[in-house]
Design brief:
alpha/beta, Rossmann fold, Helicase, Ruva Protein, domain 3, 3 domains, 5-stranded parallel β-sheet, 3-stranded antiparallel β-sheet, 17 helices, 48% helix, binds adenosine-5'-triphosphate, binds magnesium ion
Length: 407
């Protein structure tokens, strides 16, 4: 038997000298200090202050938060909501408790899911099946009134929730809850978060006029702001001697090019992990370079949390594109064939062409695939249009790895 040179006991006993606390880098972590969002938090406070009053029956408030990827929308609203909830519970002087609920509509894609989640939070034994959306809305109003609780609901990435006119009607009912029949005297306030810069023109008029209370825009962070966010996080999650200000600056430079604080924090964490694996006493520029190539361009949850049909289409496209260096683009026809075969092998019924097309548009809207339409010509004459599909910056092998094993 050959002797192993790997000393497991010694390895496990060795102290990590780079990462002090992994949790500080997790997506769900809310930092104690939100640097450079003071003005936005102040705007929120001005806007929602009145819901801390002792009047239970006054209409709720609504605010749309718009900003591109990684501008701190989610973390700011979460920090604000949790704080408001805490204040309402601490102040006993006739102030009614506020319940803050944050739901991501990319994960909860229907009002049914949203409303049952909410009701379960208010009444843990609430049955999950058997009610229409109208009935659920009506229960929500009744329970809030009975329990004398004010609701502050954050619908994050809410665009995913309002794809049909029925969906828009439900949002409308919530926005105009004081004029409707569902809510009695209940007070419901809403945060609606979106990345869409043209949200005002993309929503219909009824909703827009109800949302006249305003849109708060989150601008991307500049280099100094990104560096501050990174050093605050490094101070919380890393050992002091493990990073330098040059390292922080370099990661900030890379993240500012993408205008994305999430990328900044992930790059810092990956660099730290690589430094740790290499048993280096500190993070070097080489660790950043290695980390850079390993960061996935979109959060992996964007892929793993897609609905089943989207997953099958994406897997079919990734497989076709993985067929060789010449497979840079595929046509909708080729994709449709591969998709039908995959559905067959998984025992899933393939969707009709119109629905299939809607899924493709949805994947393109999320920036996961690229759709391009070109005019074709034959003998100098127009020969119709052709749509091609490709995946730009996510390695297709990784997509296959993520989706292959999933049902
Ligand atoms: N001002 C800040 N201070 C500290 N950390 C921040 C700040 N802004 C963003 N972050 C961190 O950056 C990451 C991305 O922030 P967040 O999830 O809020 O972005 P977002 O605008 O909601 O992006 P998306 O549109 O992709 O959902 C999170 O880890 C968050 O904690
Ligand atoms: Mg977000």
């Amino acid at each position: 038997m050959t002797e192993s040179h790997f000393d497991l006991v010694n390895y496990l006993n060795q102290k990590n000298r780079i990462i002090k606390d992994d949790k500080k880098f997790e997506p769900s972590f809310i930092p104690s200090q939100l640097v450079h969002r003071e003005a936005e938090l102040a705007q929120m406070a001005i806007h929602f202050k009145s819901i801390l009053s002792s009047d239970l029956h006054q209409a709720g408030k609504q605010l749309v938060i718009q900003g591109s990827v990684g501008t701190g929308k989610t973390v700011s609203v979460k920090q604000f909501g949790v704080t408001l909830e805490k204040i309402s519970n601490e102040q006993k002087r006739g102030i009614f408790p506020i319940l803050f609920v944050h739901l991501n509509c990319r994960r909860c894609r229907s009002w049914y899911l949203i409303l049952t989640r909410l009701l379960r939070q208010l009444v843990p034994a609430f049955p999950l099946r058997g009610f229409s959306t109208d009935e659920l809305l009506s229960f929500l109003g009744k329970i809030l009134t009975e329990k004398k609780i004010k609701l502050l609901l954050c619908l994050d990435e809410f665009d995913y929730l309002i794809t049909t006119s029925q969906d828009r009607d439900v949002l409308y009912s919530l926005l105009r809850h004081h004029e409707g029949t569902y809510f009695d005297q209940a007070q419901i306030s809403l945060f609606l978060i979106t990345r869409n810069p043209h949200i005002e023109t993309d929503l219909d008029e009824g909703i827009i006029s109800s949302l006249s209370q305003g849109i708060l825009r989150f601008e991307p962070y500049n280099l100094d702001q990104m560096s501050d966010i990174l050093s605050t996080r490094a101070n919380e999650g890393l050992y002091e001697e493990s990073f330098s200000s040059e390292i922080i600056k370099q990661i900030a430079i890379l993240a500012v090019q993408r205008k994305d604080a999430r990328y900044a924090i992930e790059l810092l964490w990956r660099s730290a992990k690589i430094a740790e694996c290499e048993k280096s006493p500190f993070i070097t520029f080489e660790h950043i370079r290695k980390a850079e190539v390993s960061v996935f361009p979109v959060p992996q949850s964007f892929i793993t949390e897609l609905p089943t049909q989207h997953k099958i289409i994406l897997l079919a496209l990734a497989k076709l594109l993985n067929n060789g260096p010449t497979s840079h683009k595929v046509t909708t026809f080729e994709l449709r064939m591969e998709y039908e075969q995959l559905c067959d092998s998984k025992g899933v019924i393939p969707r009709k062409s119109t629905q299939f097309w809607l899924y493709l548009k949805d994947l393109s809207k999320q920036g996961i695939i690229e759709l391009s339409v070109q005019n074709r010509h034959k003998d100098g004459k127009s020969a119709g249009r052709i749509t091609t599909l490709s995946i730009i910056d996510i390695p297709v092998e990784k997509i296959i790895e993520l989706l292959e094993g999933l049902d």
